């Protein structure tokens, strides 16, 4: 139970770090071999699509380039609920599946709208002082996200 | 000195070809007129042939006029297009955006149609209609469909329209050598944004806005050859921008593209705008296609497609996908910036904001920051609409021009 609690907390901390644009904090939760992928299935072309795919260094560069770009500054908040956790004790890894809802709040007036829904499919490395994210696949259900966003979910 | 209300309302001191009245972006009546005069008789990209590779594969598309269309490949492998409207009670026949249907059956009363648009079954037909109405009376409305220019399925609602080849003319000649191999769509998404469709097309028709893109400034604008790219206008309002070599490795985290594209120089980039709202954008390893579907004067769907080569290995495809997503994906660096920019225009220009003029006045020998691409578009817009873009309501006289008249 303690292990599951630690895994859940890792997922929630990853959301909070990105919500706060604490990119270093997010990357600190990730293993050196971290891989981050955003996918979506398109019923229109009947294909799985990859919308983003980076390793840890790629994510770091993506975050580092942000100040040079023109971006939507409306904050987004990630609401995750960890549904399932499966631990492979021999491999010292766990698989966690979480429901994800992303809300966006307008700067002018503060109206909040649902921005996207999907799921995190996380692979978590165990055995260290604390669990760390080895792989995150964000499977998007929502594909209509207006102008898009420069910070991934 | 800042302008007072008279100054603000005064016509720009440019030739009338070099500015437009912003009401062409906001007026509901003009929008309705555009749907009829610009879109109804135009050839529009509905999908790509790779989206419907097999017999009975179909794809739905809402035409910019609002007409719901089915594009379906028949048993003879010919692609045809029909209204997605049942001739019985006007119901939608197919609901899913794509699929495979040997019989297209309306769920409402089970009337069925084949891929040639013929009605093949009217449920309890004889009992209800006796000999007064039969299957032959109940065909679907077919619209023109042709495959061309890279394997795209083009549709045209006007039975008397010119051919696709006549409509495109020489506009895609620059790209034709690069579209000889079969291609495949690997990316599709839509964006609904509050702006006018022409403002999106404008963004694809001028590169002066590269100032909004850090990526383009660092990989393009600061590189030799950038200011040599030239615009070419073609009949029917189409326009192209010539190639240059993009220095992708100038952007941190990016890299020199390895996979390339047949016949295109490494780092090459060709962009061709098709009137009234489609863009071919071939950049190094990916072909991106934009298709606008206007919903109102200030509401727009843009359909985005990314294509690679059908013969791609898994590794090649992955690289194209990476290249695409870096700048053009929903989380990409450039697409977000472009969409923010046109939404900003929509926010500043919708009805009631007292926006008055939009200037297309840059003249730089038709090179990359010249605004001749937009001037070329609006000349065609005026011709088809029967009203000039600088004075769409026929109420003003031009101010004395300060700039020399050109294109």
Give a description of the structure.
The complex is a heterodimer of chains A (153) and B (407). Chain A is an alpha+beta fold. Chain A has a single domain (2-140), classed as Nuclear Transport Factor 2, Chain: A (Roll), CATH 3.10.450. Chain A is built from three helices and six strands, in the order H-H-E-E-H-E-E-E-E. The radius of gyration of chain A is 16 Å and the shape is globular. Chain B is an alpha+beta fold and 407 residues long. Chain B folds into two domains: 44-165, Rieske Iron-sulfur Protein, CATH 2.102.10.10; 181-385, Naphthalene 1,2-dioxygenase Alpha Subunit, Chain A, domain 1. Helix content of chain B is 22%, strand content 25%. Chain B is globular and about 80 Å long. The two termini of chain B are 31 Å apart. The model of chain B has no long low-confidence stretch (mean pLDDT 94). Chain A binds chain B through residues 38, 40, 42-47, 49-53, 58, 61-62, 64-65, 68-72, 143-150, 152, and chain B through 51, 59, 96-99, 185-193, 212, 214-215, 251-253, 318, 321-322, 325, 329-333, 335-337, 339-341, 343.
Topology readout:
The complex is a heterodimer of chains A (153) and B (407).
Chain A: H1 2-19, H2 23-28, E1 30-42, E2 47-55, H3 56-65, E3 76-88, E4 93-105, E5 112-125, E6 132-140
Parallel strand pairs in A: 1-6
Antiparallel strand pairs in A: 1-2, 3-4, 4-5, 5-6
Chain B: H1 5-9, E1 19-21, H2 28-39, E2 44-48, E3 57-62, E4 68-73, E5 79-83, E6 98-100, E7 104-105, E8 112-113, E9 119-121, H3 125-129, E10 142-148, E11 152-156, H4 164-168, E12 183-193, H5 197-203, H6 214-221, E13 231-233, E14 239-241, E15 269-274, E16 278-283, E17 286-296, E18 299-309, H7 314-328, H8 333-349, E19 357-359, H9 372-385
Antiparallel strand pairs in B: 1-19, 2-11, 3-4, 3-6, 4-5, 5-10, 7-8, 8-9, 10-11, 12-18, 13-14, 14-15, 15-16, 16-17, 17-18
Helix pairs in contact in B: 7-8
């Amino acid at each position: 139970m303690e292990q599951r609690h630690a895994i859940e907390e890792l997922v929630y901390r990853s959301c909070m770090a990105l919500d706060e644009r604490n990119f270093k904090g997010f990357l600190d939760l990730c293993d050196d071999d971290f891989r981050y992928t955003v996918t979506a299935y398109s019923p229109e072309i009947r294909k799985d699509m990859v919308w983003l795919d980076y390793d840890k260094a790629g994510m770091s560069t993506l975050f580092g380039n942000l100040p040079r770009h023109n971006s939507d500054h409306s904050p987004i908040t990630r609401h995750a609920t960890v549904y399932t956790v499966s631990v492979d004790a021999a491999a010292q890894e766990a698989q966690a599946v979480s429901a994800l809802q992303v809300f966006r709040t307008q700067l002018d007036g503060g109206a909040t709208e649902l921005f996207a829904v999907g799921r995190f499919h996380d692979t978590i490395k165990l055995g260290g002082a604390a669990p760390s994210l080895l792989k995150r696949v964000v499977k998007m259900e929502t594909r209509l996200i207006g102008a898009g966003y420069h910070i991934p979910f | 000195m800042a302008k007072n209300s008279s100054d603000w309302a005064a016509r720009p001191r440019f030739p009338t070809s070099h500015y437009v009245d912003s009401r062409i972006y906001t007026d509901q009546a003009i929008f309705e007129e555009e749907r009829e005069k610009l879109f109804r008789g135009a050839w529009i990209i509905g999908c790509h042939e790779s989206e419907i590779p097999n017999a009975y594969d179909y794809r739905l598309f809402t035409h910019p006029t609002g007409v719901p269309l089915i594009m379906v490949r028949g048993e003879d492998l010919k692609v045809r297009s029909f209204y997605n409207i049942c001739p019985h009670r006007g119901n939608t026949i197919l609901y899913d955006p794509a699929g495979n249907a040997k019989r297209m059956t309306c769920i409402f009363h089970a009337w069925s149609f084949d891929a040639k648009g013929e009605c093949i079954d009217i449920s309890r037909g004889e009992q209800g209609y006796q000999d007064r109405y039969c299957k032959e009376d109940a065909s679907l409305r077919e619209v023109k469909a042709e495959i061309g220019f890279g394997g795209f399925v083009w549709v045209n609602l006007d039975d008397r329209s010119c051919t696709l080849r006549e409509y495109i003319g020489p506009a895609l000649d620059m790209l034709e050598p690069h579209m000889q191999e079969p291609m495949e769509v690997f990316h599709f998404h839509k964006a609904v944004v509050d702006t006018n469709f022409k403002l999106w097309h404008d963004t694809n028709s001028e590169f002066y806005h590269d100032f909004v893109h850090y990526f383009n400034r660092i990989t393009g604008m600061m590189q030799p050859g950038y200011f040599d790219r030239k615009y070419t206008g073609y009949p029917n309002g189409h326009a192209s921008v010539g190639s240059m070599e993009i220095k992708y490795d100038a952007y941190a985290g990016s890299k020199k593209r390895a996979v390339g594209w047949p016949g295109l120089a490494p780092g090459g980039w060709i962009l061709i705008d098709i009137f009234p709202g489609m863009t071919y954008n071939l950049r190094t390893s990916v072909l991106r296609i934009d298709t606008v579907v206007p919903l109102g004067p200030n509401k727009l769907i843009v359909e985005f497609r990314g294509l690679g080569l059908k013969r791609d290995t898994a590794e090649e495809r992955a690289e194209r996908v990476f290249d695409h997503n870096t700048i053009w994906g929903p989380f990409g660096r450039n697409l977000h910036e472009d969409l923010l920019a046109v939404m900003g225009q929509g926010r500043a220009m919708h009805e009631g904001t007292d926006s008055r003029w939009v200037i297309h006045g840059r003249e730089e020998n038709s090179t990359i920051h010249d605004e001749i691409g937009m001037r070329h578009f609006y000349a065609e817009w005026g011709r088809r609409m029967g009203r000039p873009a600088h004075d769409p309501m026929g109420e003003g006289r031009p101010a004395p021009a300060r700039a020399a008249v050109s294109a």
